[in-house]
Structure formats: structure tokens, C-alpha cells
Amino acid sequence: MEELLMILISSVLVCVSLYYYIFKIRVNGTKNKRLDQHKLPPGSTGWPIIGETLEYLRTGKKGVPEKFIADRRNKYKNSSYYSSANCKVFKTSLLFEDMAVLCTAAGNKFLFSNEKKLIKSWWPPHLDKLIFADSAPDEKAKAFITEESTRFRNTMAPYLKPAGLQKYVGTMDTFTKKHLDMYWEDGKDDDQVIKAHPLAKRYAVTMACRLMLDTEDQQVFNKLENLTKDLSSGFTSLPIDLPGTQFNRAIRGSRQLREEIKNIVTQRRIHLSTRKVDEDVDGLDILSSLIMDTSSDGQGLSDSEIASKLYGVIVSGYDTFSSTLAAIVMCLAELPHVYDAVLQQRQIAESKAAGELLNWADIQKMKYSWSVACEVMRLLPPNSGTFREATSDFVYEGYLIPKGMKLKWSVHSTHKNPEYFPDPEKFDPSRFEGQGPPPYSFVPFGGGPRMCPGKEYSRLKMLVFMHNVVTRYRWEKVFPDEKFVWNPALVSTKGLPIRVFPHNKSQSN
Ligand code: HEM
């Protein structure tokens, strides 16, 4: 069904493309006479409608997404407004939209610091459909990703910032140990092999359920993981909402996931209503705190609103966090000297009494591990970058950006650019020591007011995971040449099977 549709759609796109190509229809320009003297950025919008999307996807699939940008920077070098300068912005067309790609650290800074001045956040419309899945029947409740992200940030900030996260370090540590017991220890096949990438996804979703919903019920884990998996497949499928398509399944997954979470919220609210009033409110878990919180307007959040925030945590961290974790596992297998340096953290474990859990002070000591995680995200960033929209006409680097034009920043512009990262292919965590990379060149979490609100939460989970896994195991890749590519999300090509050797066993052997 999906294949037939693909053929049909491709044929229609090719016909329409030819029509546009022959008649060269282009709508550009501005009504503002003063700005009219400026040209649009150099570049090609490729084929009508599909633009340069296929070329963009092709480079990602080959594992070299930076090539899409570098090729255009080279090509349009001499057509720059300032003839001696390198190309800092080019025009293209991706995801059915003409857009300008700002491709320097200064460009990132420009976009991150002009939110609500010259630009606003923009998401491709099919993502609204996927994420909200018609969950808001009346117009009043209808939210778009940008507005919902702002509400998410406001409500969840107390739980996702370092001050709020500190008290969950021990819970994360305990949960990680259980995860390793269950899947890295008992889950191995006869050949000691586990599949690290799917397990990282399981870890991401179950850890989110443990922390946000305060549950360790395996049935709940399974149900929510399956629905999250269905939903996540919609981010990378063709956005065609017809019965039988992947996108349609993903929308259904999204709707059911919200419903499941809402049911859990409702049950917890009923449970809480039977509690004695003088019970300790400070000791409440995150879900109970959200239910009991009436600080904003004295009324508190509805079950749907709370479900929406928790859905945000589970979904936003699913692919990004898990692929980073899997990429860390891969790099530590490939680079024994880096693994050994991370293993120095054994000292933290050795300084503890039996059964004593990690705490916030331990996390602060894991500076090298964080540099390793950053270097992994530099080379294998799980989120390629997002979009903005011009809210008025303006001139950038001598080129006109008309109101309504979409703008893109990309991690692939700077992360492998030797201007910011000398010898860019080399894995070198020391880049993050001292002053670190030049400002706005290392941007795996974005920046400015829309910077990822899950950054600290992700950092903490990565460090707790790295600490536990390195102090318990060594491992090797089953397929030494396996790599990660962007398809268009960051994926391991074979699921990253690894052979695992517990330290205690290898020592006793
Ligand atoms: C390694 C893990 C992660 C990476 C690399 C990552 C990266 C990003 C990036 C690049 C953006 C776009 C920022 C921008 O447009 O300037 C973003 C946005 C966002 N992230 Fe993350 N993210 C990660 C994990 C998470 C987690 C665990 C959560 C949930 C707690 C989360 C929640 C969000 C939300 C809600 C937004 C939208 C922010 C807005 O538009 O205001 N992310 N993330």
C-alpha cells in the first residue's frame, strides 16, 4: 500500500516539477522599496515542491550530512555579497518550503538571539498533526508545537533544571543498575551478544516512565514503549495520512499514547484524593507534584494538560537521547584509550560504601565523561537542527530575507567545520576542556530561548548510564565497520549488536 502510494506521489511530483521547471515559476521579493535593492541569498531551490530534499536526505543516509552544506558553501562562495567572504547563507528548498540556511556560528547566534524580534520558531505542518494527533477538538485548546513547547518549558522547568533534578540522581542510579541486570546481564544470548541501540531506546522510555510517572510496571513500560515507537516512526515517514500508511499508524500511536498517559494521571489523581492532608508533600514524585501544584492560577492543571507535558518528556527524549547513548557505546568500543579514561570513574564507585548510590556531587566529578558525550554529539548529533520563520523583511549578510521565508540552522554547518574544530574527524574530548569550542559552534541542543529544555535531564541520564556501564563491563562491536547514519534521524545501521564482558567475570577468568 505504502509503495503504491510512493509511486503515485512520485509520478505526480515529477509531472508538477516538470511543469514548474519549464515555466520557471518563482515567487520572490518584498514590498519594501528600501530592501528591494538586496538580492535573495545565492542558491538553488532545485525541483519545484521537492526542492533539494532528496539530495539533503541522500547525504545524511551516506553518513555525511555536512557535505550538503559544505558543497553549497563552496559553490556560492564567489557570489557572496561581500566577494571576498565565504558564503554564510544560501537558499534551498527542503520539506516543501523555500528556505535560507545560515551556515556559520555567527548565523546560529543570529537565529538564537533574534527570537521574537525578527524571527519565530517554525515546524513543518505535518509534525503538528503527528504530535497533536487531533487531540484538541476545540479551537481554544488547539495548540501548535511552538506554543506547546513554551507551556512545556514553563511547567516542567522546576523538574528539568539542575536544582530540580538533583534529588533524582539516586533513583536514576538504581533504575540504571536494574536495567543493566535485566538486559545487559540476563538479556545476553549464548554468544554474550546484546543489541545496544534498541536497548538504549528501552532505557530512554522506561527511565522517563520511572521518573515522570513513578511506575516500574513492565506492562505499562511495554505499552508506552510500543506506542512511542509507532509515533516515532512518523517523524521519518512520508507525511501521508491515509489508512495503511506508516504516518497514519504513527498518528494513531500518538493519540493512544496521550490517552494512556492521561489514564495514569487520572488514576493517580483519584489515589491522591484519598490521602491524608498532612502527608509529606515534599516527598512527592513528579506526577503527584504536577497534580497537586496549584501555584499558577489556584486551580492547577487538568489531566490532559499534565498528560501533554509528560508525553512531551517521553517523546522528545526517545530518539535523540537513545541514539546518543548508543553512539556513546559505539565510540567507547572503538576507542579503548577513551574507554580507559572514562573507567577512571571507578574511583567514584570504589569510594562508596556497599549499596551507596550516586549523588549530585559525584556527577560534578564526571567532567571527562561529559566531554566524551559532547564529542560524540559533535560527530554524531542526534538532532540535525530546526527551523525558524522571518516575521518581517530584513537583510542578513547583505541578502534579503523576506517576511515569511523559512530559515534553517544546522549542527552540520559547524560541528565538522575545521574553522571551529581543527582536524574535525578526530575524536578528541579535550576540545571541551578549558574555554571549550568557539561560541555557537557546538549546538547539539540548539540555543537561545528555544534551546532544548531537556538538556540537563539528558546530561544527567547520560552520565549515570556511562558510569554504570563502564564500571561493570567492557564490550566490543559484533560488526566492526558498523556506523551511524542520518535516515533522516540518527540511526545505527544494524542496531549495534555488541559482545559484553562483565569485569568481574573477565577478572576471575
Ligand atoms: C540527547 C538528547 C537531546 C538532544 C540532542 C536534543 C536536541 C534538541 C534540539 C536541537 C532542539 C531544538 C532547539 C532549537 O530549536 O533551538 C530541541 C528542542 C526541544 N527538546 Fe530536546 N534534545 C534532547 C533531549 C530532550 C529531552 C529528554 C526532552 C524532554 C525533557 C527534550 C525536549 C525538547 C523540547 C520540548 C524542545 C522544543 C523546545 C522549543 O521549541 O521551545 N529534548 N532538542
From TrEMBL:
Keywords attached to this entry: Heme, Iron, Membrane, Metal-binding, Monooxygenase, Oxidoreductase, Transmembrane, Transmembrane helix
Q: Binding positions for heme?
A: 452
Give the subcellular location.
Answer: Membrane
Q: Which residues cross the membrane?
A: 6-23
Record's keyword annotation contains Acyltransferase: no
State the Gene Ontology BP annotations: sterol metabolic process
GO CC annotation: what is one?
membrane
Q: Which cofactor does it need?
A: heme
State the SUPFAM superfamilies in the record. Answer: Cytochrome P450
Mind giving the lineage of the organism this protein is from?
Eukaryota, Viridiplantae, Streptophyta, Embryophyta, Tracheophyta
CDD domains per the UniProt record, alphabetical? CYP90-like
**What name does this protein carry?**
Cytochrome P450
Q: Name one GO molecular function term.
A: monooxygenase activity
Mind telling me which InterPro entries this protein's record contains?
Cyt_P450, Cyt_P450_CS, Cyt_P450_E_grp-I, Cyt_P450_sf
Q: How does the UniProt record describe the way this protein sits in the membrane?
A: Single-pass membrane protein
* UniProt family annotation: Belongs to the cytochrome P450 family.
Please, which domain of life does this record's source organism belong to? Eukaryota
User: What's one Pfam family here?
Assistant: p450
